């Protein structure tokens, strides 16, 4: 059985067991760990920068504990490239995965994220991943990350309002949930869209999509290229204990 480790790049202790249980199956056990140093949530570039050292350390620890693949559970994909340099097992970012999947399901896609402060992150990632010309829109619902799980009805209503605009005004073919804290809401969002007469629009839930991609990489024996992600040379790094 494969071991897929979800590294949650924030220090907030979340109730993750029900999510990891839902993603585990006969072929793979999915478990999660949070970082011990970093921000309580990620809502912009500064938060993301603070999260990276702890994320790298957690990825090294996950590989040493026997993980077969890692998913970094944030739509900013913080530390994915850096972690790939220091571990040999696959490291998957949900944002890159979701964008590539969405682009394969339609001509373009819309991202519905939490706060306006996150919009520049998605613009930068879309350019980096070669997806910028496939982005129909990036909208936000004005709910902070740590409040997303407080009220499912409020979250669904806010996502639905922006999703309708993304499809009807921005002509998005596919929708991406723009925060991994929105885990599990895709089904309710599809139902809400159907009630509005909008059918046939896929909604990509990034975390389970990334986990399934990680499982697939392990199954076929693929990991990241050492030409692209060469291990760093040994050197003194002051103030950090990453190894």
Descriptive account of the structure:
This protein is 40% helix and 15% strand. It is α/β, with parallel strands linked by helices. It has two domains: 2-93 and 207-220, Rossmann fold (3-Layer(aba) Sandwich), CATH 3.40.50; 95-206, Rossmann fold (3-Layer(aba) Sandwich), CATH 3.40.50.12500. The protein has a four-stranded parallel sheet with strand order 2-1-3-4, with helices on both faces. It has a four-stranded parallel sheet with strand order 6-5-7-8, with helices on both faces. Helix 3 links the parallel strand 3 and strand 4 (91-92). Helix 4 (94-105) crosses helix 8. The chain is globular and about 55 Å long. It starts with a strand and ends in a 23-residue tail after the last helix.
Q: What structural keywords apply?
A:
243 residues; alpha/beta; Rossmann fold; four-stranded parallel β-sheet; 8 helices; 40% helix; globular
List the helices and strands and how they pair.
Blueprint: E1 2-8, H1 17-23, E2 28-34, H2 45-64, E3 69-72, H3 80-86, E4 91-92, H4 94-105, E5 109-113, H5 119-128, E6 135-140, H6 152-168, E7 174-177, H7 186-195, E8 203-204, H8 206-220
Parallel strand pairs: 1-2, 1-3, 3-4, 5-6, 5-7, 7-8
Helix pairs in contact: 2-3, 4-8, 6-7
